[in-house]
Write a structure and sequence with these properties.
homotetramer, about 280 residues, alpha/beta, Alpha-Beta Plaits, 2 domains, 8 helices, 13 strands, about 35% helix, globular
């Protein structure tokens, strides 16, 4: 039997759950888990249902559309691994962790390719028989560089782009193409230390806890919807370099956690926030 | 408008959510939040719904009963503060924290009385104009002592008993009278260090993290359903006394957290486990 | 036998520990614990030694001065409770927690008085037989208000001022008078959400973890040296109000932790950072 | 210039730090960091000093021996990477994480070989050009199996054995040969759930936090000195399988943390506890 995830978002009103579950009941589907949330501020209703059964997708969607507000967001997703492209620069810890999870099949994703502006992570990537594309940013404009990256991305038609310490800013064009489908790991506890060199700034500020933040990428650097965050304690004895070293474990763990949530279709984006059914 | 919590537990089968929410819809009730869980192991369905509206309680319950399995557990609770009795021995940190929360009304509970086998916490308790009952355990049998305690408890008819570092074992009689309504805080990360002197034993074992566990009390010491747990790191430089000191903050925080969950009717007991909708 | 803490800070050079411990050895003192740290960036040496014995303070200090760089910071402190004044506005959780710890003697501090710009916390404070001074800020200039506060503070000559959710900004005069002796609790994970309404802004940003920061107060709002920080996870289901409620436990715990470190003379300030021997 | 770590453990008495640092001063060594601890219970003194300089090892050790109690433990270690052998069974997450850290040189260890009682992790190991030895336990006695393992271990003469989810019990012989040099990761928060199937038991007990423990191996299963522990929250919605899955990240992080501490010579064993200078 196939497993599906049904995602619904619409203006809240009475009776939504009753109507939606009624249609699932009529189709004789077996609900595995169910979550709802009403965001008061926007009067929005969110629902995620995981169920198994045999369905004709369009028929189910049509039935749902008939009982939901006209502008409702309805998505019915057959559960299978998501295709991702990982983008990285020079650091190996996040990429390496994702490759390991890809290898051990502990995340519902398949890494189709790695793209980097350096050639440094090729050996590591190819150990796992994953395509590696080295697209240097040197000697070309930002626009040219991204055009080349984009061409490679398009070839794979991935579900998500995962920026695993990719130290370049993406253009609005690519961001729009992959709206809410680009996941970045930022090495600070956002919104603290937005931008460059967060560990140096954390050290300079004398903080006692550092962190990492996985978020969707939008047009404003490090300001997209946050998916997951993690922290670890530090002390005066940590140099900026020690913090960066210690932070690596949080970065990779938080990125993997966020990717799992996204790949399992547990994350809605509402404005600049995420609603997460975990 | 009044707020209610509806708790339902029954054998799982298709269509339950649809039917239950249908009845709430028919009664024109406004669902504030909703949670469901199916425990696969026991094929049990659990649902907690918070809603507001004007209802006739018995009519709603009857309607629900008509669509649910015969043996379904159905509880409809008008949301208001719960009456509790706090039992303590000599340590003031948990009791003091609860008295402060009672005073600032930050928990949905009213402390009706404190019962202790010492007179030591009287001054603290009476600062907050809460009745204090000193029932010494000296010169009387365990049975006699508990009979006296029980008589006082009965006078207040509390919703819950909260053992805030009460260092005596309750009899099966009292435990049965308050089934799943006695909350204890144990000063270890259960099931590690069940029983007496957990900090001494944590020290002797050389653990690097210590914790506290809030649980319902049943006939087996420290083995009732766990509601909440918390931890803090320690090191070789902590003596057993340092651990006990450091542990106090976790104990009081975990106890307050558990009490909040229980008093907001968010906790189901299923066998020896809790299902918590938070 | 008396217990002392010796604090030394000076430019680093070889042989410092040897010379310092030599003098302690000559005076036949019993070292209880010892910590050193060299801050590479500034080439500064920091040492905290806790010892017991009978000494003539000035003689020991003179001996130390003879072997240390001329500009060395040397402080020899007989261990006893520190006098503090707590300043608060309307919220009771931090003040209440400090009063409880004062009552149970679980922190090495004595609360000599509470000063507030509202009369609201009087009843709570006076339960614990602590002086309460209500100094309204209404109908008087900022300068006048602080002059009145200052006059009261001076009367008690406290070791430290503790701002337990005191919602007013202190003047540079008072800050200079109590340099590195004013401890504030800020209800965010600094440097995120400096300034007003951090929970509202945390909610608006959609963060998944919130925190609290205890720091020394200097002339720049929320930018003084950080002493301690703590965090708790939140989710999309937390409103700003829920975050504020959940944050209270972190605020009070972090403030108490910072106060303990400071009152036990474990904290050095170096530039805008703290060096902590715990 | 070479970096050394000096480890000293002996009965405590006055003047030890003075004398030890005096000898380092006489040899004109540059102390990088320094830590001392006195275990009251056993009246034992522990000191770890990291310094750089040019020394003749035996001369320095002799000088130290002259001022220390006769039975003092003195170890002077030139800082370089430690050779380790990783032993594993079928799970790849801990081994994979160690291989990644070996590859990125983020831990001061070199994995000389992997030994497993299955052939399953060969492909992964050999990606990293690390020797893989498959020693099946089938068709041979426990004694024979370990003899074969032991022969391979001896060939590499490693500094440490790391049990990365090695699901077999070692014999006292091997344990004695590598006293306090075998590091195991146990998938529970010890001493909770000693022995087999900790996640199943954690699930059955309904705990709200699970953990992992890295410890030295001694003759009693899961009872050796604890080096590091870590935890993550779980809820009723985690099956035993979900717990095992979620626990993997803690297991690998805690194991890597413990290995780092050990490989940097930061860990003393005192009785059944560790004293850690981090």
């Amino acid at each position: 039997m196939t497993t599906y995830v049904l995602l619904i978002a619409c203006a809240d009103r009475k009776g939504l759950i009753h109507k939606i579950t009624g249609i699932l009941y009529d189709h004789d589907l077996n609900i595995i888990s169910n979550g709802e949330f009403v965001e008061k501020e926007t009067n929005s209703f969110f629902m995620r249902t995981e169920f198994s059964g045999e369905i004709e997708t369009s028929s189910l969607t049509d039935s749902l559309r008939a009982v939901l507000p006209e502008t409702a967001y309805i998505r019915l997703i057959e559960q299978k691994k998501k295709d991702i492209i990982v983008m990285a620069t020079r650091e190996s810890h996040c990429l390496g962790d994702l490759l390991m999870r890809h290898y051990s099949q502990s995340l519902p994703v398949v890494i189709r390719a790695v793209i980097s502006n350096y050639d440094r992570l090729r050996e590591l990537t190819e150990k796992f028989h994953v395509d590696y594309h080295y697209v240097s940013h040197e000697g070309c404009s930002r626009q040219e560089h991204e055009a080349r990256v984009s061409a490679i991305v398009d070839r794979y038609a991935p579900d998500y782009l995962v920026l695993a310490k990719y130290m370049r800013i993406l253009s609005p064009v690519l961001i729009r193409q992959f709206e809410n489908r680009i996941i970045n790991i930022h090495h600070s506890f956002l919104p603290a230390f937005i931008g460059a060199k967060p560990y140096e700034r954390a050290y300079a500020r004398g903080v006692k806890i550092i962190g990492a933040t996985a978020h969707f990428v939008n047009d404003n650097l490090d300001e997209g919807p946050i998916i997951a965050q993690g922290v670890i304690p530090v002390s005066h004895s940590h140099s900026a370099r020690d913090m960066a070293q210690a932070g690596k474990d949080v970065e990779k763990t938080v990125l993997a956690k966020a990717l799992k949530l996204v790949a399992e279709d547990r994350v809605f984006v509402s404005g600049n926030k995420t609603i997460i059914f975990d």
